[in-house]
Amino acid sequence: MADSGRAGSLERFWYVTAPRWLQRPAPRASEAAADGVWTAAWPWVGAAAPVAGFLIGMLFARGLPAGAPYTVSLPFVAMMAMLAVLHGTAALAAMAGFTAVDLLTAWHVSFRGAFRELPWIMQAVRLYGSLLVGYLLLSMLIVRAPVAVRRVVNGLPTARVVTPHAAPAVRAVLSGLASAVLVWIWCQAMIVLVRPAFTWLLDNPTVQAVRTVQASWPLLALLAAAAAAGRALLEDRAARRAPRAAVVRALRAEREAETARTVTTRPVVRVAIQAVMTTLLLAGAYSAPLDAVIVLLATALLAAWDQGLAGAPAAMWGRLVLRVPAIVRLGAAMALGYWLAGIVVARLWYGWASGTFRPVLFGGLAAMAVFYLLFPQSLPPAPEAAGREPA
Questions:
Q1: Closest C-alpha among 271, 235, 218 to residue 40
Q2: What are the CA-CA distances from residue 20 to residues 32, 203, 256 (Å)?
Q3: What is d(CA 314, CA 305) in angstroms, rounded to the nearest whole number?
Q4: d(CA 298, CA 296)
Q5: What is the 3-state secondary structure (H, E, C) of 13-55?
Q6: How far is 322 from 385, CA to CA, in rounded Å?
Q7: Among 172, 155, 157, which Cα is nearest to 236's?
Q8: Can you give the pTM of this predicted structure?
Q9: Mind listing the pLDDT tens digit for each residue in 356-376?
Q10: Taking a C-beta distance cutoff of 8 angstroms, is the pair 228, 179 a contact?
C-alpha cells in the first residue's frame, strides 16, 4: 500500500477504473461502484472491502438450498440491505460473487414435473430468465435505492438550516429514514415480483420464499436505517479526522474527471434499456402476455419523456421541477404515487381485472409515472438540489 498521502493501485482500480467501465452502459451502477471510496480514509479498509464482499457473496450462494431464490435466506437479504448503504462497492462485489456461484450451480438443480419434459433450450431460457429477473430485483435493493437516498440527502442544504456540528446528525437521521422507507417498498414489491423464480420453472412459490420479505420487513428496514445512519456519521468523521482523508479527496476528484470524460449512451438506447429492464422487473405481476406489452410501451414512453426526447415541454418541465428540493419531491412522489395507485387498484379490483395481479401492476405503473415526472434525469440538477459530498 502506498503512503498515507497517496492512493494505492488497488484502491484506484475499485473506485476509479471499475466504475469507469460501468459509466456508459449503467451510470447508476457506476455510481454505486464508486460509493465505497470513503473507506479509503483508513489503511487497507478501502482496498480490502470489495474483496471481502465478493467472498461473502460466494459463501452465501453456496449456503442456499439447491434451486431456492435468495429471498429464502433472511441473513443474506439483511446483509445485502446493510452493505448496500454502507459500502456500495462491496455490495456490488458481493452480488458478483453470489451471481457467479449461482449461475454455475443453477443447471445442476433437479427440476420436477412438466419442466423436465421441456426441450433443453426452453429449459435454459426459462431457468436463466428467472435468474436474471431475480438479479435485477436484487440490483434495485443494492443500487437504485441507496443511490436515490444519497442523492436526496446529499442534496439537502443542511448547512443553511442547522449548525455545522448538527448537520452530520441530521443527515444521519434522514439517511436512516429514507433507507428504511425504500427497503420497505422493496420488500412489499418482492412479494409479487419474486414469482418468476418459480412460475417460469413451472412451479409454485414457496411460503419461505415470501416470508422473509413479507414478515421480516421491519427487521430489514431497521437494519438498513441503522447502517445508513452509522455510515453518515462515520463518513463525516472520515472526511475530517481520518489519517488518509486526502486520499479520498484525490480519488473522488479523479473519479469526477473520468465521469466528465465518458461519453454517455445515446438517449434512444437508454430508453430501450430502461423499457426492457422494467418489463423484466415487473414480470411477476403479469397475468397474460398482453400485460408485458402494455408495460413495455408505457415504460418506453415514460423513459422517452425522462430522457428529453419529448423536446421543449419535457425540458421546461424538468427545469421547473428541479427548482424544488429533492426531499420535498420525494415526499410528494410517495404521497401522490400512493394515492394514484390506490385509486387504480380500487377501480380495477372489482372490475374487469379482478382475480389477477393487474390492479397492482397498473397501480404500480401509475406510481412509477409520478416518480418519472418528479425526478427527471435528462437535465443537470438545479444548484439547490445538486448532490454534494460531505465537507
A1: 235
A2: 11, 40, 10
A3: 6
A4: 6
A5: HHHHHHHHHHHCCCHHHHHHHCHHHHHHHCCCHHHHHHHHHHH
A6: 7
A7: 172
A8: 0.86
A9: 888 889 999 999 999 989 888
A10: yes
Residue written as grid cell 433450450: 121
Listed as ranges, residues in the chain with pLDDT below 70 are 1-5, 110, 112, 157-162, 352-353, 378-391
Round to whole Å and give the CA distance between 290 and 272.
Answer: 18
Angle value at C-alpha 31, between 306 and 269, nearest 5 degrees: 40
Which pLDDT does position 87 carry in this prediction? Answer: 96
Sign of torsion, CA 269 272 275 276?
A: negative
Cβ atoms of 112 and 91 closer than 8 Å: no
Q: Which three cell numbers stand for residue 115?
A: 419442466
Per-residue model confidence as pLDDT tens digits over 187-216:
999 998 998 988 888 888 888 888 889 999
What 20-27 contacts at long range (C-beta under 8 Å, 24+ apart), as own/partner pairs, is 20/258, 20/259, 20/262, 23/258, 23/259, 23/262, 23/264, 24/262, 24/263, 24/264, 24/265, 25/265, 27/264
Contacts of 305 (CB under 8 A, 6+ apart): 314, 372, 373
Distance of CA 42 to the CA centre of its chain: 27
Residue 107 phi, psi (nearest 5): -70, -15
Question: Rounded distance, CA 319 to CA 148, Å?
Answer: 19
- The alpha carbon dihedral of 368, 180, 65, 206 has a sign of negative
Q: What is the reported pLDDT for 352?
A: 67
Per the document, the length of the chain is: 391
What residues have CB less than 8 Å from 366, skipping those under 6 apart? 337, 340, 341, 343, 344
Please give the grid coordinates belonging to residue 128. 436463466
pLDDT digit string (tens) for 65-108? 877 889 999 999 999 999 999 999 999 999 999 999 999 888 77
Which among 387, 136, 168 is positioned nearest to 280, based on CA atoms? 136
Q: What pLDDT, on a 0 to 100 scale, did the predictor assign at position 39?
A: 93
